[in-house]
């Protein structure tokens, strides 16, 4: 299946096989789930959300400090 993934200003189409979750996608991209918020088709989702063919994923880096 193909999904569109946007991280920052970079956007790409990714092909994955089998049932995968947001967490699986983040791990394959070497992104720590604790440091980002993920939107699937314009809705914020948890990392257990199942990916489906044609999904549009946006990974938003969380910025924090003190």
Automatic annotation (TrEMBL):
It comes from Methanobacterium lacus (strain AL-21). Transmembrane segments: none annotated. It comes from the Archaea. The lineage of its organism: Archaea, Methanobacteriati, Methanobacteriota, Methanomada group, Methanobacteria. This is ThiamineS protein. SUPFAM superfamilies: MoaD/ThiS (SSF54285). InterPro entries: Beta-grasp_dom_sf (IPR012675), Mopterin_synth/thiamin_S_b (IPR016155), ThiS/MoaD-like (IPR003749). Gene3D superfamilies: 3.10.20.30. Pfam families: ThiS.
């Amino acid at each position: 299946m193909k999904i569109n993934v946007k991280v920052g200003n970079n956007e790409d189409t990714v092909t994955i096989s089998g049932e995968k979750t947001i967490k699986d996608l983040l791990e394959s991209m070497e992104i720590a789930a604790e440091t980002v918020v993920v939107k699937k088709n314009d809705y914020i989702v948890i990392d257990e959300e199942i990916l489906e063919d044609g999904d549009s994923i946006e990974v938003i880096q969380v910025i924090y400090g003190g």
